[in-house]
Amino acid sequence: MARLREVGTLWIGGPLSWMEQLCLKSFVDKGQKITLFSYEDIPNVPDGVIRRDGREIIDTDDFIKYEKKDSFALFADWFRLHMIQQCPGMIWVDTDVYCHRAMDYDSDYVFGFELPGEHRVNNAVLGMPSNSELLQQMIEFTNDRFSIAPFLPKKRQEKLRQMAAKGKPVHISEQPWGVWGPMMVTYFVHHLKLEKYVQPLDAFYPITFRERTKFMRRVGRASELISDATTALHLWASNKRQLGNIHDGLPPEGSYLELLVNKHEINPHLAPIKGRGKTNFDGGLIDEVDIEEVSTVADISGHGRSFVLALYHKFDCDIHLVNTDKRGEIRDDDEEWLAEYITFLKDHDVDEDRIKVIRKAENLKPVDILCNLNGFGDIYKVPLFAKFLDNMMHSDTRVFMDVRKGSGAFPFIRTYGTNTHLSDREEDGKNIARVRLQPKPPEPLDDAEDTWADIAGELAGKDGWYRPGTNGHSFLYMPRSADTLVVTFDNLDIAMTKRDDRRPWGYSFIKAQGWSMLSVLSGGWTWYREQWVSDQFDQLKSEGFFKQFKRVVFYGASMGGYAACAFSPAAPGCDVVAISPQSTLDKTIVPWESRYKVAWDNDYTGPYGDAAEVSKAARRVYILYDPYEPLDAGHAMRFTNENIQHLRAPLLGHRLGSSLNQMGILTPIVLGALTGTLTSHDYYQLLRTRKESPRYQRELFKRAVKTGHKDLARSLGAFILEKNPNRAISKGMKELG
């Protein structure tokens, strides 16, 4: 009798790429229970996947790997045997195995031939009785890490024996690929005469290793080989090398892989292929970005397009392409790489109005990420890089660049900051290091008028005050009237390095209304979880500071949105305006929150801790959020008190404030909220403007396609294209036919 089986797998190596996300989610979508074991937190596991600690199976920190290929496949070969032994009935699947049809095999023996001729048995899909002789013999064999396998070629066995006789036995990690994998499984299956249990080639490997590139070609090349007998489908992780080298770490357009990611609603731009073995691909740099917000990325070498694309889709950032030549001269006539680069971005759903080409030196501005891959310090002279660093770095910028040995780049960049080594490669006999450059903390300036303390003191005037605190936090009070006080939450680094006027957020806007302002500034991405900050709010509350105003409004976005809600108990009865806020980053309360790792270890307890709970002290709390951003929506839904007014902004993303600002409606929305006159009707009337937003149009069209409403998508696409060109929608319409 057929029975639906539970499957299990293991991941070692940080965030998942889209290929692992696709394979894991395919089991969830087909209704087959899947457990992912790991030895560390993985931030981007698809919903529905069961998570378990790998130490439940093997409690170790000894993650052995095939050293020649720098692959943890060896540890996975060992782990799967013990998983099957300790989880009776569970079938092992590799993380590159896709669920084509749920596996409902009745037999506990589940494995398949991987090549014609029905001899070689692969272990990408592996199941067997937990007390079977087959499992016991394989576990016993793997207990000896210097064993000489009887299935290796005789010459290889003899060489291993000679090394052992010399007192230099060869460790399993230095032995041939698959010695604890398919070679071992094949040997013991035949040795114990279990061939009758082996599934035919069609079951798991209808597209063999030699044919694996068909997954990257037009859909029909792969689909014509898949039969009704196919259940789990091995996508072959070795395809990652070609995906990374040729296709920017993304599924090729029109390929079977693209068909699958669209079917299961996986966004490959957010999780490009990072590397294969010792080779690292540019898109994988997204995992090395250690700042929480990216507003602008600039590429000055033209070689970082997959990295830039990943940044755009993760952070919704603007893209600056600097049209410079190998001498560092910024040109009017376009460099050869520019047109193809822009086409690539637009073909992958980047709004054209978010791409800016820099053709004049005076237009160089500070950015959050500066990309200089295969550029100055590698193939071009590093001193020419100086003017870009001088003009494009602020206190929190991250520079990603390649440094060729002997170029003199390391002494040069040390004058700008500290660097973190990310990876190495060899070219023309020279070592090239990939590094992330971080500016040195700014030293105190001799000119007092350039310091924040002096700026804040001037803004406060004789009737206001400025209070510097611990770890860069500060409070700045600017009195204007007793009618309204607006309390804003901002990041000092952003105020001082990204705004020309070096003013707290909303300064000019609030001043124009004649309102008083209390600006609370953080010393980085701290979520304001500093005791000094809490103490200041306690003191202001006890002194009756907030009671002198007729209305008090707390405002913030993202981290600031959390703070606006969390500190509202200091002014009971206030109003709160929070855009895309987090409710808390306490992992015991929101274990699904995978962002902002830098702040996970903070203490989120106390009277200003869980924003969703403590904000009940406010009179009214406006929560603006995108319901289709699952993490933002998860936080928004935690706000359940009666004073909460949820204002949805579908398909506008986490950086909702930027989207609303681009549409020209942020000011009237915020103004209405701050004055207390904003109604739901007013808000949604203003939000109708989004219908003209290229981003909203694209996301709405894609959602119609993904949910199967193809006729609606065609009508919507035709309507949009009648009004204005939208490359992403034009491309989608062609795919619909």
Q: What would the keywords be for this entry?
A:
single chain, 737 residues, alpha/beta, Spore Coat Polysaccharide Biosynthesis Protein SpsA, Chain A, Rossmann fold, eight-stranded mixed sheet, 18% strand
How would you portray this structure in words?
By secondary structure, the chain is α/β, with parallel strands linked by helices. It has 4 domains: 7-237, Spore Coat Polysaccharide Biosynthesis Protein SpsA, Chain A; 281-439, Vaccinia Virus protein VP39 (Rossmann fold), CATH 3.40.50.150; 448-681, Rossmann fold; 693-736, no CATH class. Helix content is 32%, strand content 18%. It contains 26 helices and 25 strands. The strands form 5 sheets. An 8-stranded mixed sheet has the order 18-19-21-20-22-23-24-25, sandwiched between helices. A 7-stranded mixed sheet has the order 13-12-11-14-15-17-16. Strand 11 (296-299), helix 10 and strand 12 form a beta-alpha-beta unit. Helix 2 (73-86) crosses helix 3 and helix 25 (710-723) packs antiparallel against helix 26. The longest helix is centred in the first third of the chain and has 14 residues, at 73-86. The two termini are 43 Å apart. Residues 444-449 have low confidence and may be disordered.
